[in-house]
Amino acid sequence: QGPGDLTIDGTFDWISGTQTGPGDTIITAAGSATFSPNGFDLNLRGGRDLVNHGAIEAVSGSLVLFQSAVPQTIENDGTFELSGSFNLVSQCCYNVPAFDPDVVFFHNTGTLTKTSDVAVQSIGIPFDNDGTVTVEAGRLTFSGGDQSSTSGTFDATADGTSVEFGFSGYTLTS
How far is it, in rounded angstroms, from Cα 143 to Cα 122? Predict the structure, then answer.
């Protein structure tokens, strides 16, 4: 809790709790993280961003980004794997009036892969894809729209896989 960056150069197993305060949680290119809160929520609040240059495996539970007075982001230029029943969601509001929060969003310039056998998995926050999204099993639904436009690749070519855009404000460009 509090301002400043948290830099992960090794292995980080996040199994519970809240990270609060302005700054970044940074997974370096040499680092890795596993999000496995056993069905509970992990929380980012108060301007805490998640920056991934390495590898994240999201196994179970949820990562909740609280809308606040500053934009909150997940910046991924590494690999982010959805290997289990994991959800990405936002919640209003942390220390701001309900009518005035900045948005939260996921910006992908790396690789997001859904490998879980969960039939339908959803990313419930705005998602800008300027990298690669690969669905290896089931369906991946983007239900939060995007922030600007998306120029990356969405690959759901394996049998029985699909990508679904469940929000009318999604702009795909080539």
Answer: 7
